[in-house]
Structures are given as C-alpha cells and as structure tokens.
C-alpha cells in the first residue's frame, strides 16, 4: 500500500496541493518557510489525525479559513482506498472510502507513518514517557491485538487508581487481577517486538557506529523476578498512601545505553543523531516485514541534521528500505539519490510543483 495521490487544502500556509507521489522516494525542496515541513505535517496528520509538532490541531487550519482537509488515495492489492482527515469548528472528522471512522486506531492501522526530524533526539534526552510511546507504536503495527489490550489496560488502570485515591482497598484488589492479566499480555508483546527491533538496529549500527556498544535495555515496570499481581499486593499499603498504581507496563522504560551508560551522556551530538535515526529506521523495517500495510517515512531537513558523509549513508539506507518516503531539503543538490524512480517537488510560498 502506498500514497498514490495527496490533496491538501487550507493546511497552515499551504495553498491547494494536489500531487501524485512516487511509491518510493520523494524529495521536497524549497527555501525556509516555503511549506516543506507543513507538507510532511499534513501527511503525518493523515495517519495520526494530529501534528508531530504538538499543540492544538485547530492551529493547523489556515488563517481565516473554516477548516483544513487532507485527503490521500492509497493503492492497495484490492484497488484504491481513500482516506480523509478534516478539521473545522465541529471537530475532527475522519473518513475511509466515504465511511466515517470513529476510532483513530483504525486510521493508524491503515496508514503507519513515522517522522525523523530534530525533535527525535528527545528519545534519548527526555524521560521514559516518550520512549514508552515509541515502544507502544512499534508494537501496535506489529501485533494486531496490542492496541485493544493497551486501551483495555488503561481503562482498568484508571478504575484501580480511582479506588486507590478513595482508599478503597477491596475495590483496588478487585481490579488487580485483570490489571495483572493485561500487563502480562502487553509485556510479552513488547518483548517479542524488541527482539526484532534489536536485530535491525544492531545490523545498522555495525556500519554507522562500529566503535560503540549500543544496547536497548527494557525495564518492564515491575520486578522481572515476580508476577505483577504479587508485586501490587505486597505494595498495597504504599499505593493506598500514594493514591495511584506504582508498578506496571505504564511505568516501563526503554533505556538506550552505550557501554552500559545512558547514551545521551556519552555520545556526541552527531552520534546521537545517527543512533536515533538507526532506531527509527529499525522500527520502519520491523513494520514493513511484520505488518499488513507498507509504512511511510517522513524525513525533515536531513542536511541540517548530519554532515555530508553521514547524510549520504542515511539516504542510502532510506532507499534500501523499499518503502514510500518524503525527504525535505533547501537545495535540490543537497540530497543525492542512487536508485529507484524518485520524484522531486519544488515548493514556493505554499505552492507545489513537480520537477522533472
């Protein structure tokens, strides 16, 4: 599955955009502020119904306009599928082939998308929450039942936390068994997924950071020597005092270590960028081989992130992934492609044109 047509209307400063991307690599170039990142943001919104920049989705609507619309035609083995995301005064509406979709997880499954940009370094520098989100998205597109298990887990967790907050020990215990069961399912799915992720990551890093000993250390959120129900029962008094659940997959972390130390502390800025890019490319590889649909990769302003040699290495890796990708840069000659049938698009003042 690939994005065969992209239509964008009134999204930030973009004018009416209607392009037919390549199913391989697409390069978007233009001056700063021309609308390169906004196009990637629109594509991302097509898969997640939100921006990778954060903030309120209402701010994506062009000034003075009632709503924005992003619509994509996806080529599938059975024909074509149309996906649309519209945001206006009446909220966000998502349609798939004309039918309204209530669950955003349905949209995400149809259109797996990931972004590589300057903010990705937060995987190393920020706390566990961001790495848990990365881990959850990784497993979501590999294990079909994971999304439902995680949604159910969060509901049970909220119920248990409410009982803890009111000091209701009996009701707390009633939710403990179900929390333990769901946590085991989530933990096992994460472990299986991490095995594949590690394999792809190590293969890449043997070429990119051969001198460094990089490892992913998974902390599941409770003692590895005990089942969660036992841990929760033995810590019930502490939890009642705290008013929330102290252990479980919602407390997990994916530590990214170099020589046994936090990678953020010992690696140079350039090495950190390569490490995070390698991790995200490993995620894409895992999605491509494990999922039912082909993922889409967005890479924003790669020349600003890496020197020429490393930039070329990353571009070659993206080409070798055999997935649809959008790369942005200021000048056309900043990115050199070596294979496939890429398409080039120039943007100026929010207007896009294909360059032959």
Care to describe what's here?
- There is one protein chain.
- This protein has helices at residues 36-48, 104-110, 122-125, 128-140, 146-165, 169-208, 228-234, 236-242, 263-266, 269-290, 302-305, 308-320; strands at 2-9, 17-19, 25-29, 67-76, 79-88, 91-96, 99-100, 113-116, 214-219, 253-258, 261-262, 296-299, 324-329, 343-348, 351-355.
- By secondary structure, it is α/β, with parallel strands linked by helices.
- The chain has a domain at 1-112 and 302-356: Rossmann fold, CATH 3.40.50.
- It has a six-stranded antiparallel sheet, covered by helices on one side. It has a six-stranded mixed sheet with strand order 8-12-13-3-14-15, sandwiched between helices. Strands 9-10-11 form a three-stranded antiparallel sheet.
- A hairpin with a 2-residue loop joins strand 10 and strand 11.
- The chain starts with a strand and ends with a strand.
Keywords:
6-stranded antiparallel sheet, 6-stranded mixed sheet, about 350 residues, about 45% helix, Rossmann fold, alpha/beta
Sketch the major β-sheet.
Answer: 6 strands, antiparallel
CATH topology description of one domain: Rossmann fold
Low-confidence stretches: none
Query: Which range does the strand content fall in?
Result: 15-25%
* CATH classification class of one domain: Alpha Beta
Strand order of the largest sheet: 2-1-4-5-6-7
CATH architecture of one domain: 3-Layer(aba) Sandwich
What helical percentage do the residues reach? 40-55%
What order do the helices and strands follow? EEEHEEEEHEHHHHEHHEEHHEHHEEE
Q: Assign the CATH superfamily of one domain.
A: P-loop containing nucleotide triphosphate hydrolases
Q: What's the total helix number?
A: 12
Tell me, what's the shape?
A: globular
Work out the radius of gyration: 22 Å
Structural class: alpha/beta
Mean pLDDT: 92
Distance between the termini: 24 Å
Find the count of extended strands (DSSP E, 2+ residues).
Answer: 15
């Amino acid at each position: 599955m690939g994005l065969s047509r992209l239509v964008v209307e009134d999204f930030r400063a973009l004018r009416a955009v209607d392009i037919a991307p390549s199913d391989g690599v697409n390069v978007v170039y233009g001056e700063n502020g021309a609308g390169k990142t906004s196009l990637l943001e629109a594509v991302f919104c097509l898969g997640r119904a939100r921006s990778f920049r954060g903030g309120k989705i209402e701010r994506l609507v062009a000034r003075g306009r009632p709503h924005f619309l992003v619509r994509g035609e996806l080529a599938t083995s059975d024909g074509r599928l149309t996906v649309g995301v519209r945001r206006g005064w009446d909220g966000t509406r998502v349609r798939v082939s004309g039918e309204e979709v209530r669950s955003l997880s349905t949209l995400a499954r149809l259109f797996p998308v990931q972004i590589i940009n300057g903010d990705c370094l937060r995987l190393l520098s920020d706390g566990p929450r961001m790495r848990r989100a990365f881990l959850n998205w990784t497993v979501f597109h590999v294990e079909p039942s994971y999304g439902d298990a995680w949604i159910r887990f969060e509901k049970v967790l909220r119920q248990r936390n409410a009982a803890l907050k009111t000091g209701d020990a009996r009701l707390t215990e009633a939710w403990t068994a179900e929390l333990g069961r769901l946590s085991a399912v989530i933990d096992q799915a994460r472990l299986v997924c991490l095995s594949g992720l590690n394999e792809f990551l190590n293969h890449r890093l043997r070429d990119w950071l051969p001198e460094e000993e990089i490892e992913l250390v998974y902390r599941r959120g409770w003692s590895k020597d005990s089942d969660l129900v036992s841990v929760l029962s033995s810590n019930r008094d502490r939890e009642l005092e705290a008013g929330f659940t102290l252990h479980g997959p919602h407390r997990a972390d994916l530590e990214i270590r170099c020589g046994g130390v936090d990678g953020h502390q010992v690696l140079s800025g350039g090495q950190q960028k390569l490490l995070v890019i390698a991790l995200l490319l490993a995620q894409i590889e895992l999605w491509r081989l494990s999922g039912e649909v082909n993922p889409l990769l967005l890479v924003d302003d790669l020349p600003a992130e890496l020197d020429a040699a490393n930039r070329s290495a990353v571009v070659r890796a993206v080409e070798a992934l055999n997935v649809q990708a959008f790369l942005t840069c200021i000048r056309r000659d900043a990115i050199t492609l070596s294979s496939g049938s890429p398409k080039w698009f120039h943007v100026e003042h929010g207007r896009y044109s294909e360059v032959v």
